[in-house]
């Protein structure tokens, strides 16, 4: 396999020293005060300018609009001139896009909202719909990613090297298919079109106040981002011209994050345990100590049973109270690092007036690393007579108070992710005649991702009595005579795991040929058409753990070497004021038997150690070697998906007068054929016949390749209309049929045979009774009809009032269904049933309203507001605690479970999304304050997208201010997450604590120089 070999940062066992930064306490006041000062100073400048003009100066001053005002004007212009419903941002100069990242830039567009990770914007949802319903195009081409889905992590691309971002909310036939919610486009500069020489550099310093309290071995308190770009044009005597644009960026920053967590719902470690005081066989009132999901006498790992009882038609535990409890809860302290190198290149060559040739390339290499220090408390265990009797829950079964005895762990992880992106392409435009233009484009995009992780653990040797109570955001623990800061308390069951996982390669090769023929008629202005072919491949390498490989070393429960390892690798707790912004005081309180507080062990820290030192020592003590295992291509866990797409389209553009109004737009159709082939591996086998003619299946040692697939053809018509009702009022409408394909990671092919061992099979049809497996390469796309109408008023270049109404009807949902698949065994074809996830014909509706408002007053103050409201009846059932059904071969539907959680909505769906920007720009001063709000939404896990996880509503503030010292030099300060808005998540049901992430603000100061 081709593996990523760039370095993964190791930690050195060093002495830790840190102090509390006063800036961390005053950041809110400081930033706001500095902005206020800038505004006040700018106001004086405005007054002085007005005075000088009033003293009789008669020369007319030509004002060049720039900065935030120019950005808002460009947004208005992009929206007004388009024939589709589109919103976007553009920059006249490279490096002038007003945002710290592409994600932050897109968030400022009406109807767009981001999913936050590490304090910054990553995946983008459009109009309340999740990223899997959107498509992203880079310079008109599809972009790859390392997540196994079709969303794009926009933090991979530097905003400084992108010239334009836009979101197309309706589509025309010429656009690459794939976006039900919309299409996000990113564009880099064409140097000849830019038309001037430019050498530009920017150095940006990053300071995160929360980082000042962390002794971070991966990154210093200050980070930086350096960007350089060069644009030039060369004209030759024979009329030819060549343009060159290069850009490069180096980023080295930290991403501070403190967390409180519960067990994830993506596996089998978060349970709904019975909370019935009359049931002493299981649940929180079981008669003997043990895990609440296990029965005293009977089954294990079950909890609340949602399976249908055939005698009642209800769930087996219908009506029984329950409470949510995970295998563990934890606090996590992080040391973080984020390094990225990015390179952009563009060549534009015009050998004559009839040819325009563009070559562009983008490269991004990113390494994220975290050294994690966890305090885990295991809390499934029931203490009879204590746990159930003192349990307090809310109305959805989330625990607010727990009491009992269980083990504590000082755990740690050292994690790194390497993600490399490369994309390049060539575009050749030929003006064959005055009427005919032909365009050819070929491109390649590739993303490689790999994750390495060390996971460590040291436990208490005995069960510790403790209680925890839920605060406003996170739990708080009270222990009795137990010092969590004493490393000698965690000498039991030392273990280390070294994982190499999520090794993925995603490639897209594509080519298209288009024509544009001008008609010059009174109604139809031109006809466009073209063909496109593409091939997407996705490979995820398997190993001993399915999606990766693991090496594990564990020591005996009472190994005498344990205390030596812990003491040799011990470090001071790396952070002061840990989780202080989301806690209600000390997160851990140590009391004696009388309830008096013991100072040692009370606070917000615990015993920690260097993760690499710990892992190396445990491996050596077990006679092993400290090295990450390899992943394999020929492995049962491997996914190898190839998706080939061919499409053709034809579209007519019109521009005519009707009823004394100008109408313009287009209509057309796109026809798309997609074929999916998926490869997998399984153990080889032989079908053996004994002397009586009875067949049996004998497994071999070797692996054999298996394959499956499917295909579909869809017709995608579209129609767009713009009515110039008056000089400043536009009426707009659009209709199109959209499609969103299944994620590549969901189209793997894993299959194993089920045999009938109770009979004496004499034929293959008798021997095989079914198939177990996962992944469905024959998954059909989710289709939708989309309708938009809008009214837009443009009073002047700085003002906009726009209201849009839209409706989407989805055809498709995801449900378990039994289907037949053909398998070749011993040269014979056997048709067997398998139950798998399929796209159904279920129809759902989504309605929405979108509004934009922009205005600028004469005193230099301007504002831009964007709001989106949406509602839908789309339902997504949780696969473990929701209502689940199966459709048999005859099309009959049978309910398998009666759930205890309400279904989620569309993945990524938020009812309300709001953004507001207030700016003040006079002379060379430019300041802006931005607010972004997104209501709660369901966000699937990438490891298990069938479980419900809700991200709570959040409002985030940003600010920026700049001063243009002269025509060459500009100073700028920027801040995101200004008031330290945490990210809060609920598992399975709203109101059930899942995870809280505290990032703190991130501050940037920069100077840019251009010539």
From TrEMBL:
Coiled coil: none
Keywords (A to Z) from UniProt: Cell outer membrane, Membrane, Receptor, TonB box
Region spans: Disordered: 290-320
Domain TonB-dependent receptor plug stretches: 79-183
InterPro entries per the UniProt record, alphabetical: Beta-barrel_TonB, Beta-barrel_TonB_sf, Plug_dom, Plug_dom_sf, TonB_rcpt_bac
Polar residues: bias regions: 296-309
TonB-dependent receptor-like beta-barrel domain boundaries: 471-978
Compartments in which it is found: Cell outer membrane
Family affiliation: Belongs to the TonB-dependent receptor family.
Protein name as annotated: TonB-dependent receptor
Organism: Thalassotalea profundi
């Amino acid at each position: 396999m081709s593996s990523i070999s760039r370095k993964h940062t190791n930690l050195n066992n060093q002495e830790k020293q840190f102090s509390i930064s006063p800036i961390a306490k005053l950041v809110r006041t400081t930033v706001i005060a500095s902005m206020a000062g800038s505004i006040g100073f700018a106001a004086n400048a405005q007054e002085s300018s007005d005075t000088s003009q009033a003293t009789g100066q008669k020369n007319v001053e030509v004002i060049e609009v720039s900065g935030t005002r120019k950005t808002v004007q460009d947004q208005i212009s992009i929206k007004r001139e388009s024939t589709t419903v589109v919103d976007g941002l553009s920059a006249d100069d490279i490096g002038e896009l007003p945002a710290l990242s592409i994600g932050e830039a897109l968030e400022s567009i009406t109807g767009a909202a981001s999913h936050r990770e590490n304090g910054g914007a990553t995946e983008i949802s459009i109009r309340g719909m999740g990223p899997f319903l959107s498509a992203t195009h880079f310079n008109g081409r599809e972009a790859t990613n390392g997540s196994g889905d079709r969303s794009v992590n926009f933090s991979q691309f530097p905003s400084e090297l992108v010239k334009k971002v836009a979101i197309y909310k309706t589509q025309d036939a010429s656009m690459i298919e794939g976006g039900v919610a919309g299409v996000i486009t990113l564009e880099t500069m064409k140097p000849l079109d830019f038309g001037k020489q430019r050498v530009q550099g920017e150095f940006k310093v990053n300071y995160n106040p929360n980082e000042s309290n962390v002794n971070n071995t991966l990154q210093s308190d200050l980070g930086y981002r350096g960007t350089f770009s060069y644009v030039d044009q060369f004209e030759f005597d024979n009329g030819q011209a060549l343009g060159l644009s290069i850009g490069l960026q180096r980023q080295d920053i930290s991403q501070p994050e403190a967390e409180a967590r519960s067990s994830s719902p993506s596996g089998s470690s978060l349970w709904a345990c019975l909370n019935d005081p009359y049931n002493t066989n299981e649940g929180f009132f079981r008669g003997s100590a043990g895990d609440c999901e296990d029965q005293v006498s009977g089954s294990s790992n079950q909890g609340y049973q949602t399976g249908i009882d055939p005698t009642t038609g209800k769930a087996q535990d219908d009506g029984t109270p329950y409470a949510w409890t995970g295998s563990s809860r934890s606090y996590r302290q992080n040391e973080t690092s984020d390094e990225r190198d990015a390179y952009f290149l563009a060549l534009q060559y015009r050998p004559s007036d009839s040819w325009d040739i563009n070559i562009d390339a983008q490269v991004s290499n990113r390494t994220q690393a975290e050294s994690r220090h966890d305090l885990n408390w295991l809390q499934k265990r029931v203490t009879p007579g204590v746990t159930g009797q003192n349990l307090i829950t809310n109305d959805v079964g989330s625990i607010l108070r727990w009491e009992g005895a269980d083990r504590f762990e000082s755990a740690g992880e050292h994690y790194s992710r390497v993600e490399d992106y490369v994309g390049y392409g060539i575009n050749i435009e030929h003006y064959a005649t005055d009427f005919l233009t032909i365009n050819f484009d070929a491109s390649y995009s590739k993303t490689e991702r790999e994750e390495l992780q060390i996971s460590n653990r040291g436990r208490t040797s005995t069960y510790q009595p403790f209680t925890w109570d839920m605060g406003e955001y996170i739990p708080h623990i009270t222990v009795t005579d137990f010092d969590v800061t004493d490393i000698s308390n965690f000498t039991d069951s030392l273990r280390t795991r070294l994982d190499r996982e999520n090794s993925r390669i995603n490639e897209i090769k594509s080519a298209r040929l288009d024509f544009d023929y001008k008609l010059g008629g009174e109604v139809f202005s031109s006809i466009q058409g073209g063909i496109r072919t593409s091939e997407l491949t996705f490979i995820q390498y398997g190993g001993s753990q399915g999606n990766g490989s693991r090496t594990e070393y564990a020591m005996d429960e009472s190994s005498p070497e344990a205390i030596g390892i812990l003491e040799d690798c011990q470090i001071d707790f790396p952070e002061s004021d840990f989780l202080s912004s989301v806690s209600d005081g000390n997160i851990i309180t140590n009391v004696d038997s009388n309830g008096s507080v013991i100072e040692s062990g009370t606070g917000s820290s615990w015993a920690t150690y260097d993760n690499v030192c710990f892992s190396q020592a445990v491996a050596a003590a077990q006679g092993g070697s400290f090295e990450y295992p390899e992943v394999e291509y020929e492995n049962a866990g491997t996914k190898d998906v190839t998706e080939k797409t061919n499409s053709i389209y034809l579209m007519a553009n019109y521009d005519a007068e009707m009823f004394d109004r100008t109408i313009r737009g287009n209509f057309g159709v796109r026809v798309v054929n997609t074929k999916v082939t998926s490869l997998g591996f399984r153990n080889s086998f032989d079908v053996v016949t004994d002397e009586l003619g009875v067949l049996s299946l004998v497994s071999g040692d070797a692996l054999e390749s298996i394959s499956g697939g499917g295909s579909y053809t869809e017709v995608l018509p579209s129609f767009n209309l713009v009515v110039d009702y008056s000089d400043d009022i536009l009426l707009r409408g659009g209709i199109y049929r959209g499609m969103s394909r299944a994620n590549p990671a969901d189209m793997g092919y894993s299959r194993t045979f089920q045999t009938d061992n109770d009979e004496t099979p004499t034929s293959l049809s008798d021997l095989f009774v079914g198939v177990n497996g996962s992944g469905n390469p024959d998954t059909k796309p989710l289709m939708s009809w989309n309708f938009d109408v809008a009214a837009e008023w443009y009073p002047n270049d700085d003002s906009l009032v726009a209201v849009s109404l839209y409706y989407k009807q989805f055809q498709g949902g995801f449900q378990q269904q039994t289907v037949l698949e053909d398998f070749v065994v011993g040269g014979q074809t056997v048709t067997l049933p398998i139950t798998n996830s399929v796209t159904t014909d279920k129809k759902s509706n989504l309605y929405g309203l979108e509004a934009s408002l922009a205005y600028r007053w004469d005193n230099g103050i301007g504002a831009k507001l964007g709001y989106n409201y949406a509602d839908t009846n789309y339902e997504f059932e949780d696969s473990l605690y929701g209502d689940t059904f199966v459709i048999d071969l005859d099309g009959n539907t049978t309910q398998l479970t009666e759930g205890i959680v309400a279904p989620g909505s569309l993945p990524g769906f938020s009812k309300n999304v709001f953004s507001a920007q207030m700016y003040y720009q006079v002379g060379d001063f430019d300041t802006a304050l931005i607010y972004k709000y997104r209501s709660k939404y369901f966000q699937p896990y990438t490891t298990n997208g069938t479980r419900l996880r809700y991200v709570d509503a959040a409002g985030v503030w940003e600010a920026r201010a700049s001063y243009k010292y002269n025509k060459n030099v500009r100073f700028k300060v920027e801040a995101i997450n200004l008031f330290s808005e945490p990210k809060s998540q609920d598992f399975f049901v709203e109101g059930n604590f899942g995870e809280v992430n505290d990032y703190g603000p991130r501050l940037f100061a920069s100077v840019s120089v251009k010539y």
